[in-house]
Amino acid sequence: MYLDLKYRLSDAVCSVSTLPNIESISSYCGRYIDGFIVTIELMLTTCLCGFILAIGIVAARVGKVAPLRWLAYIFSYVFRGTPLLVQLWVFYYGIGGLGAETLGPLWVFFSSAWAVGFLVLTLNHSAYASEILRGGIVNIDRGNADAAYTIGMSKIQALRRILLPQALRISWPAYGNELVLVLKGSALISTISVMDLMGQTRTIFARNYDLNAYAVAAILYLFLAGTISFFIYCVERRLNKPYR
Amino acid sequence: MNEIIGVLSFGTEGWGDELLQGAWLTIQLAVCAMLLGLVLGTLLAAGKLSGFKPLSWLCNGYTLLLRGIPEFLVILYVYFSADSIINAVLGYLVTDTEYQLPKFLAAVIGLGMVFAVYACEIVRGAFLAVPLGQIESANAIGMSHIQVLTRITFPQMIRFSIPALGNLWLIVLKDTSLAAVIALDELLRISKVAGETESAQLTFLLCAAAIYLLVTMISDVVRSIFERRAMRGVVGI
Amino acid sequence: MKLKSLLFIALSGITTVVNADKLRIATEGAYPPFNNIDSSGELVGFDVEIARALCKQMERDCELVAQDWDGIIPSLLNNKYDVIVASMSITDERKEKIDFTDPYYSNYLSVIASGHDVSMNNLGKKNIGAQRSTIGSQWVEDEFGSRASINLYDTLPAAFSDLKAGRIDAVIADYLPATEWLNENEGYIFIADKIDIGDSIGIGIRKGEDELRSALNKALEGILKKGVYEKISQKYFSTNIY
């Protein structure tokens, strides 16, 4: 049903589009748009879930429970210290390769390449995002927190109402950069057989051996990156409004 | 357990020595890409800081382009197109001899092109962070432009940029894994091939991850030593 | 002129001159038993030995390199090597870009699946795996359309490992590697063993290199006549696959 909608959408785009009028490229329009939609899907879900997870990790890292603090630190260190491609392959070919019997109920999840790609991108993104947000919190004037506690806020309340909004404002530009990096990183999931924009492009290139195939993909990626940057800029303006 | 040790052992039976070779190639790749990135990045920064408008537009355009395109795509593109470009230029210049760009250099150039953008920001930021007053006073006591650069600006730029350069190094190190897609036998590709051959993918991929993590940890330690050295003589805050 | 020579020195400094005496041969290195890398890092397999035998027959120095399948034709066109001996099917699409020698063996497609609930009749509704940009993947796409549930992998072993893990229901592969894999993995069956699509495997070279092509054809004839081919084939498949 949803898949149907996606394909309809991409067909509709292609019927009105004026992609570069090179025969070896334009006949693949459907493939490009199919992949483009998958990439956007992944982007949106990853950023949303990654952000939520990141807040959890930040809470654990600035919290009082030592084991949680350590766990969060190790998690973010490991995911920032290894390449995304390695993480993808460890999860998909390594853990996923253990098969249905070993993994039991987890298999429902690991059987889908899209789901594994989404999981790894989310974990990876949350590790970086939590570091950025934490940097923001550390840089907030200590007096803010003290004042919040003085008027009787709990630690959670202080985090939610005072610290996080400020941390977000401070770290937003860096966070925005990270969002673009997620987009660029998402291209790697084509190596675990997800047909995102890059996956489709590589398949097209494997058929026509025309480097323009990659140029078209580059333009589509640039368009996405531009959209993200614009979004970041708009939010930044909003966040900074009270300070102007 | 014995099985695992068996496939990871050294010599012709196990993959231990191949993995280490792969790791060594990864480090070489990272060092070269980082150096190229720094050189290109400095040029970019100079271009952006120069008052010459078309040049700074060009550099800004390059930054914009390379920021939005996945590294993966850049490396593939460079790998597939570099040879024809180089041969076209050389053919125009003098010779008819065929040249080829080794895979390693294709990867270095691809990665270097990407990291130039990051390096450019670092260099630019460090340059602008040197207080204008210091440069003015240096001029006032009669230092030449070169002297100002070598004695006032550069030493401080290094100090300002060490943390960021450390970060960049870690990014470069991790992104070398992308060279696996152009069949360069660096750490990740070797691990993948070994895992497929021995039907032990998890073992080998975790092994690769562990090696990357180890290099990262060592780099972190080295960076903090450098940072402390660079902060010598700076009044503590 | 100064700039010119500077540019020349710079460019020639980072590149290597292509040694015209040495024949550079590419293979994939991830396609057992035809070409793969063993634990000492050496290329081994049927294609590799055939390539070596051809060089010996032509009395030329050869250098074998591994190249990922995705980029194997683009890199040939970019002059990174001169010859592809990598079990490559001769197809019309490829013939537009490169030339092929006479075939050195015939290929059939086969479909491997885990159980009996997959058959050729319901294949289109199952999750199918294939290696990206192979004749198998093209066959599936032609048969079921590009939006069928087809998972494309960079290498054939990656597709097999996903079949084994249970992510996909069937793998389309060439007959001989499929047989090899079936011998080592129990519980899987051919649901179609020899789909004849009139496919033959050739050696790929750049267009217009007719001299090289006739030399390779002559060498192929030579090793067939001398029995070298037969010996290599017997070693890997216990039969002559020509």
Structure description:
The complex is a heterotrimer of chains A (244), B (237) and C (242). With 244 residues, chain A is an all-alpha fold. Helix content of chain A is 81%, strand content 0%. The relative contact order of chain A is 0.13. The mean pLDDT of chain A is 87. Chain B has helices spanning 2-8, 16-49, 53-68, 71-93, 103-129, 132-140, 145-175, 187-198, 201-230, and one strand at 99-100. In chain B, helix 2 crosses helix 5 (103-129) and helix 8 (187-198) packs antiparallel against helix 9 (201-230). Chain B is globular and about 70 Å long. The N and C termini of chain B lie far apart (52 Å). The model of chain B has no long low-confidence stretch (mean pLDDT 85). Chain C is built from nine helices and 13 strands. Chain C has helices spanning 2-14, 46-58, 72-77, 92-95, 135-144, 156-165, 175-184, 210-226, 228-237; strands spanning 16-17, 23-27, 30-31, 35-37, 43-44, 62-66, 83-89, 98-100, 105-113, 128-131, 150-153, 170-174, 189-206. In chain C, helix 2 (46-58) crosses helix 8 and helix 2 (46-58) packs antiparallel against helix 9. The radius of gyration of chain C is 20 Å and the shape is globular. Chains in contact: A-B, A-C, B-C. Chain A binds chain B through residues 78, 80-87, 89-90, 93-95, 97-98, 180, 183-188, 191, 198, 201, 211, 214, 217-218, 221-222, 224-226, and chain B through 65, 67-73, 76-77, 80-81, 170, 174-178, 180-181, 188, 192, 195, 201-202, 205-206, 208-209, 212-213, 216-217. Strand 1 of chain B pairs antiparallel with strand 1 of chain C.
